[in-house]
Design brief:
Largest sheet: 6 strands, antiparallel
Shape: flat
Length: 853
């Protein structure tokens, strides 16, 4: 039996399988193959688990270079520091690789022992003895047998996963006699036997995908330029396949997204993405899957599957099987070539030799990389096949040290922050070139990172990758920075030889003078003729200090240019003396300070204007506050109403410039009812304060008519609408009847009152009501509330709860929490609400509270 089968219980008199008495009966598949070389066994493990240095460590492998021999004594001699460093690094690398190989061997043996423990249902010690006995019988080392055992277990596990997938994809028709496992085997056999992509597409659809509900399948071949060619399709009409025969580079389609995304593109419904693709007109809302088809780290194309209806996320076993089908397609696409007349890819280099010649002809440093695969054919690294003649290492190492090494061995930091290795891997997989400016290149020498900044170019040519970097020249970069600084600062430099009369200007100075660069520079002695007459004295003083006293000097003057424009200029210069202290030349710079000059003039005028405006604003705010406090004092004498406590609080805005329009009123009407109201006029300043006064007095006057709250707000809306400036406001109006202990109330766009009863606080149910002044006429709803003894009712403006960073619902919840903890008196409760308010808008606040006795 195979390793995937369960061991049966022994019968009477029969030795138990897997025990020491019957070692061969437990693993016949292992013992039968141990004596011959097997895939992934000892012969392969020597390559798969070799030291990271690869062939470059052997004595028979020399660095591959077509034009330059290995470094000579002048580069890597034992006496040189670089040679000693390279020898030390090489020795440490060999020791690390040997330790890694030994550790990997121990890990493989332990893993094989674990497999035997699971299959034989024995202990670790017995599994170790069993492994040694089998190795002796097969005449191989324990490590070689461990590799064989692990490979056999992996094949059994893959068989279990395949069987699970086949069971999951069983057709809905239970009467169908052919099982899902048979269909999958037939599909895989058809794919492996097919000699072209079209036959592969037909086999996939009929044998594996149609039972899953799929309607069509397309196999795309990826070109080196990023284009996509339809290599084969099934389920799509011939006209549709012809229309999508070729997709140019940079056209975003479903297949293109599948090529870019490493996990593929899984689309629930195609209509939600807006992506074009083959068969869109026939299945506009169906599900789509686009999976990259690749082998050995290189992506050759895309497998796209179409469903006629939206698809839910697939189970993991189906996802893995679809990925396996995409890998099967990749084997066909490896040898695919577009038909005659189709768009052809750019010519592929036949081997790395031609690419090495191309690299040697480049001006910038370049590396030719070839893929390095493990024993299972997976891409693990890239080998540096060739470093061109211009090669410049960030750590200063010669090309002979880098040639032949693995990329991650020579530049282990490439897998770090810069993601250089991931970029190379992606270009090799997809064929899309990559360009980047100012990427960090880091070489690790004796655990010391040495970095450089470079412009990167990566492109794929056949099975090789060309990596070009241009390390930034510090001198050129500083010169460029200086030029930009002179341009931004409007600075022009000059140098004048006193003995020969030769004058040198840079281009910026010609621009400052408004003269073409082909004209003759102006000598310093002629500077007064180009300046404003009123600045002649300061210029002559500058020239006397510089030329006669031979000291550095500076001056500011107005330059009159030939085009009639006058610029404000500052000049600084210094003398350069020879060995006999004689004046040899003068060098310096001009700077255009016109913008600074006019800015200073404007600032002086603005300061005067601001001082006057600030004085006016201070007086205006003082008068506004006086008006507001006169009409709306922070506290008010309590009302004398039997069985009712009334308290009010008013907190002005903390910023004087934000005088607001919040207002309140509590008054006993001739009918014996108590008018309770709060309101908030939109805006700040004296206009809001005066509008607040008008609305407050209007409501008090209207209340003596005996009308209800809804009617009062309707009349108040007419008043607000006809006020100058189109005033808008919110308000809550209530009439309390002390005899019946009832409250009739209405609202105009304002927050509802809060009722505190039995240590519980909640806002009153909302009634409809538009804010005041929005429309000429408005109708308001009115409701009645029956109050009980010890009930507390709170009316407030939004300055109590409003926050810039929180929704009003969250602030209202905090208010209700604070209101539940009712102190002994109503005044203390209002003070507590003001104290613990979390409002941060610096707005003014009004609170009106009543407590039924």
């Amino acid at each position: 039996m195979s390793m995937s089968e369960q061991p049966r219980e022994p019968g009477d008199g029969e030795p138990k399988r897997g025990s020491a008495a019957d070692p061969e009966s437990s693993l016949p598949s292992v013992t039968s193959e141990a004596s011959s070389p097997v895939r992934g066994g000892a012969s392969d493990s020597s390559d798969a688990h070799a030291a990271p240095g690869g062939p470059s460590q052997g004595t028979d492998h020399a660095p591959e270079s077509r034009d330059e021999p290995p470094a000579g004594p002048e580069d890597l001699s034992p006496a040189s520091s670089v040679g000693r460093l390279a020898a030390t690094v090489e020795r440490l690398s060999r020791e690390v690789r040997a330790a890694q190989a030994e550790a990997e061997g121990r890990a493989l043996i332990e893993l094989a022992k674990g497999v035997l423990v699971e299959r034989l249902q024995c202990g670790p010690a017995q599994a170790a003895r069993q492994l040694n006995q089998l190795a002796e019988q097969a005449q191989v080392t324990p490590l070689e047998l461990a590799v064989d055992v692990i490979n056999q277990a992996a094949r059994d596990r893959m068989s279990e996963v395949t069987d699970a997938f086949l069971a999951a994809t069983r057709a809905a028709d239970e009467a169908e006699t052919e099982s899902a496992a048979v269909r999958l085997r037939v599909a895989e056999s058809g794919v492996l036997a097919a000699d072209d992509a079209q036959a592969v597409a037909d086999a996939l659809l009929e044998q594996a995908l149609r039972p899953l509900g799929a309607a069509a399948v397309a196999i795309w071949a990826a070109g080196a330029d990023g284009s996509l060619t339809l290599a084969g399709s099934a389920g799509f009409s011939p006209a549709e396949a012809e229309r999508w025969r070729y997709v140019p580079p940079d056209v975003v389609t479903v297949a293109r997204r599948g090529l870019i995304e490493r996990e593929g593109q899984w689309i629930h419904t195609l209509g939600a993405t807006g992506l074009p693709t083959i068969g869109l007109r026939h299945h506009p809302d169906g599900g789509r899957v686009a999976l990259p088809a690749g082998t050995g780290g290189r992506i050759h194309g895309v497998l796209e599957i179409a469903w006629p209806t939206p698809q839910a996320p697939q189970p993991p076993q189906i996802v893995r099987q679809m990925e396996a089908l995409a890998e099967l397609c990749a084997h066909t696409l490896e040898t695919y070539s577009p038909p005659q007349g189709a768009a052809q890819e750019p010519r592929v280099l036949p081997d790395a030799a031609e690419l090495m010649d191309l690299a040697d002809g480049l001006y910038d440093p370049a590396l030719v990389l070839v893929p390095h695969l493990d024993g299972d054919g997976h891409l693990v690294d890239f080998r540096i096949q060739h470093a061109n003649n211009r090669f410049l290492d960030p750590a200063g190492r010669p090309r002979a040290v880098v040639n032949g090494a693995l990329l991650l061995e020579a530049y282990p930091m490439a897998a770090g922050d810069s993601e250089l290795f991931q970029r190379v891997e992606r270009v090799y997989a997809t064929g899309e070139p990559f360009r980047a400016r100012r990427m960090n290149l880091t070489a690790l020498v004796d655990q010391v990172p040495l970095s450089a900044v470079a412009d990167i170019s990566i492109s794929r040519h056949g099975m090789s990758v060309l990596l070009i970097w241009r390390i930034e020249d510090e001198t050129a970069r500083l010169a460029s920075l200086l030029q930009h600084a002179q341009r931004l600062g409007r600075i022009g430099g000059f140098e004048e030889n006193v003995l020969t009369g030769e004058i040198t200007w840079n281009g910026q100075l010609f621009d400052l003078y408004g003269r073409p660069q082909t004209s003759t520079p102006v000598p310093l002695e002629e500077l007064p003729a180009h300046a404003h007459p009123d600045d002649g004295v300061s210029i002559r003083r500058f020239l006397r200090t510089l030329l006669h006293h031979q000291r550095p000097a500076a001056a500011a003057f107005r330059l009159q240019r030939p085009d009639g424009v006058t610029r404000h200029i500052r000049i600084v210069a210094e003398p350069v003396l020879d060995t006999d202290d004689r004046l040899l030349l003068v060098r310096g710079a001009y700077q255009d300070i016109s913008a600074q000059h006019w800015t200073e003039v404007a600032l002086a005028a603005t300061r005067d204007q601001l001082a006057h405006t600030e004085q006016q604003a201070t007086e205006r705010n003082r008068l506004t506050l006086q008006l507001q406090h006169a009409i709306m004092p922070p506290t008010q004498a309590p009302l004398q109403v039997s069985g009712l406590q009334v308290a009010v609080r008013y907190r002005p805005a903390e910023t004087e410039q934000l005088v607001g329009g919040d207002w309140y009123d509590t008054v006993v009407l001739p009918t014996g009812q108590v008018l309770l109201c709060v309101g908030d006029v939109a805006g700040h300043g004296i206009e809001a304060a005066t509008s607040m006064v008008v609305l407050r007095n209007a409501l008090r006057g209207l209340a003596v008519t005996g009308a209800g709250p809804a009617q009062l707000l309707s009349w108040l809306n007419i008043v607000a609408h006809h006020l100058t400036g189109a005033v808008t406001a919110t308000a809550v109006c209530g009439l309390y009847d002390p005899v019946r202990r009832t409250l009739r109330w209405a609202r105009a766009g304002h927050l509802p009152p809060v009722l505190v009863r039995d240590a519980e606080a909640a806002p009153l149910p909302l009634v409809k009501g538009l804010l005041l002044g929005a429309v000429p006429e408005a109708v308001y709803e009115e409701t009645e509330l029956q109050l009980a003894p010890e009930d507390t009712l709170l009316m407030y403006t939004d300055g109590l709860v409003e926050r810039r960073d929180r929704p009003v619902e969250e602030s209202l919840t905090h208010l209700l929490t604070t209101a539940r903890a009712a102190p002994s008196t109503l005044d203390q409760q209002l003070d507590r609400l003001l104290t613990y308010s979390k409002s941060d808008t610096d707005d003014d606040t009004c609170i009106v509270g009543i407590r039924v006795g």
